[in-house]
Structures are given as C-alpha cells and as structure tokens.
Amino acid sequence: MEAALLRRMAMWYGGLGLLAAQVARSVALPRKYFALVIHEIDVMGVRSLGVAATAALFTGMVFALQSAINMARFGAENYVGPLVALAILRELGPVLTAILVGGKVASGITAELGSMKVTEQIDALRSLGVNHIKRLIVPRVLASLIVFPLLTTLADFLGVLGGMVTMGLERGADMYAYINTTTYWVVPRDFLTGIGKSVFFGVIVTLIGCYNGLTTQGGTEGLGRATTATVVQVTMSVIISDFFLTKLFLILFWPAR
Amino acid sequence: MSVLVEAVELRKSFETVDVLKGVSFSLDKGETLVVMGGSGSGKTVLLRLIDGLSQPDAGVIRLFGQNIEHLSEEALLPIRRRLGYVFQGAALFDSLTVEENVAFPLHEHTALPDDGIHPRVVHFLSLVGLDETVLPLLPSELSGGMRKRVGIARALIGQPEVLLFDEPTAGLDPTNSKMVGELISALRSGVCDTAIVVTHDLELAKTVADRVAVLIQGRFAALGRLDDVLGSRDPAVQAFLTGEAR
Q1: Per-residue pLDDT tens for A155-188?
Q2: What's the rounded Cα separation, in Å, for the pair B92 and B101?
Q3: What is the pTM of this model?
Q4: Chain B partners within 8 Å of A129 (Cβ)
Q5: Which residue of A has its CA nearest to B154?
Q6: Closest Cα to residue A161, out of A136, A138, A178, A177?
C-alpha cells in the first residue's frame, strides 16, 4: 500500500518536473501563438479580478481590526499600519492570491485539458503535427508569469487600503500618521519579495493544472477526480513552497537579521 | 511500388496485458490495408504506434523509410504531417467551428491568408459530401456521421501521403457506414491513395481493402488478399469472421 503510494507520488513529481523541462525547452513561441497568451491572460487574470480584489480587501480590513484591538492592549496601536502592510505585502497578498486565483485557474485548466485528453483532442493535435506543449501549455505558463504578479500587486494595494480605511473609520486613526508610520517601516524589498513569490506560485499552480489535465484517465469520473486533486495540490504546494521561499528570501535579502 | 509504412515484430504491453506480441507488415504506396479484429484486440494500439502517438516496447516502425520508434515528440511532428489520422470519435476540437476545425492544419503549418484557406476548406468538405452550411456549426451540433466526415476532411486538408482510419464506421447506422466506405474508396482516386483502416466491420473491409489482416491475441492470424483471408482455414480467423469468436 505504502509502496504504491510512494510510486504514485514519485511519478507525479517526476512527471511535473519533466513537464516543466518540456515547457522550458518550448518557451520560444511562434508569433501566431501570442494571441493565445493574450487569451490566457484574459481567462486567468481579467476573469479573476473580482476574487482577488474582494479577498484582499476584506483580509486587510479584518487584519487591521483584529490587530488594532489586540495591539491597543500593549499601547502599540500606532504600529497597526506597518504590521498590516508587511503581512499583506510579504505573505497574505501573494499567498491568498495564489490559493484563491490559483485554485480557480488551475482547476479550470485541468478540466479543459482533461476533457481534451479523454476525447482524444490532444492526440488529434499531435497527429496533426502540432507541438501540444507549445500550443496548450506554454501560453498558459507565460500568461501566469504576467497575471499572478499583477493580481498580487492589486491584492497588495487593496489589502493595505482596506486596513487603512478600517483604521480610519473604526478606530479613528489619524491617516497622516498612519501613512507616515507605514512608509517608514515598509521598504520596497517587502513588496518585491512578495512579487517574487507570486511569480513562482503562478508557474507552479499552472504547471499542476496542466499536468493533471494532460494525465487525466478514466473518462468523466477521472476528470472529476483530477480537478479535485488539482485544487488540493495547488493549495498544499503554495503553502509548503511559501515556507521555503520565505526562508530563501530572508537569506538573500535580509542576511544580517 | 515503394513501401511507405513498415512494422517489424511490434510488441506493446499495458501493465500485465500483452496487447501486441509481434506484429509485422508493410504497406506499399497505393495500397489499402484493413486491419480487423475484435474489441480490445489491439487494433487502435497498432494505429497509434504507427502514428508515433505511443511507443512500442519492442520492434521497428519505419515511415517513409525512416525509423520512428525512438524519435522524440519534436522529431515526429514533421513525419506526422505526412499522415492523416481519422479518430474513432472524430476528435474534433469542440470549441472550434467546423470551418476552424478543418482549417486548423493550414493555420498551423502554412502562411496562407484566411481568404486562401476558406476555399480549400469548402473544397475538402465537398469531397466528404458536406456543403457550406456546416461551416459555422460546432461539433456538438453535428450528427455522428457528419462528425466523422469533418474529421476526414481535417485529416485530408494537409494532403497526407497515408491515411489512418480508426473504426471509421463505428457507431454509424448502415446507411452512413456504407457512405463512409464509399468515401474511403473514392478518396483513392486522386486525393490519398494509401490507407490503413482499422475496423471490425467486414462489409467495410470488402468495400475498401486491397489486403486484410486479422489481429487475434496480439498477432496477425491472417494477412493477405480479402478472398484468401475469407478462405483461411485457421479456426480462430474463421471464428472471428463468422462472429463465433469468444
């Protein structure tokens, strides 16, 4: 039982790695495929704006509210601004965007590619002499490189704004002081490390969605299983890789602390 | 006659099941080979191996004089363009219209402008008996027989040297089955004269075959002219042909 599970896991990780290598080899797209990248940016990004914006705004608001009440007990309510901003920029912005948008996007990719797989449309592409990695996978990965950092930037902005508005309306905070404290403690590196994470998250969730779609077996029932597995794997991958990326960025950009 | 397709001792297994246990044949230019066999006998697997969609465990596949069994996916692409594969379920791209489906190979592999592609699409659809009214339809709006014909038109538009048909009459009523058989025969005069047809339909074999192979338990139990195969004394072949195989 354990041996079979280990074998499946090894095959999944190995397959994902091989797909990543194939994507890297096929990344130079012909000009006629640029329209596919634009289409994917629309599908992945524009249609996920609502999810990303709502989640970030309310996360910033609730984070500020909780922090203000508890930090007031230590007389540190003035530091809610930088606390919210640092949490949003470094962690919550990129991670929430990757989990929510990534889950939505990757499960959609799995469903679409899985459906193509079980109806032999991917084999049809191959039989017509078309490189299916270039046509189906690379445009999605390239789109994710653009979409996830942009959505994370939007989430960062709305999260910080949500915190600020909540502090102003709920706690009567002085906005001038709030902004001053925040900009004093928050540096561009905080924002950039979050964006760095979002690039990695975008690629990994897209690859998981694509790989699970391309390896779908067992008809419509298998398609359902693959789509569910994608949501779980995307969530776990983002949470686990976030720890290692955080560690890496701390070593690279905050070596003295 | 030049040999376009050659298979030597092809073997393929899936987990513990040996599907092909040493299949050999060659296909000359201008010839139609019909591969018959029961469900699950490995006919489709054989066709996929020939197109390079799957890799054999052992054996040699030679297309147009070139061994393909160890070629990478990238290296196989230009070879596949010389073949036309008609899938059992047509495998049309379900988000594209009939026109976009048939035009797909030209958009991918040529620099033809749209106004150069449209008349070709109409021409190849007319070859399979469809008119311009189907152009804007999605595959889901077509009958099974129409989907098969659109699939044939898409395979033909790249002007392949060999056509591979996977169960072209499966799921069709007798009228449509007869029409598809006549269409495959008609294509031989000027469009594509070489084909491998995988089927369990004896009537289709009688309509289109130059030679017939019967695939039983992973091997060709018979391979030759239709009359010779029909007259085979092999009990397994006779059992298949008379519908008494178990």
Answers
A1: 999 999 999 999 999 999 899 999 999 999 999 9
A2: 7
A3: 0.89
A4: 77-78, 80-81, 105, 108-109, 158
A5: A128
A6: A178
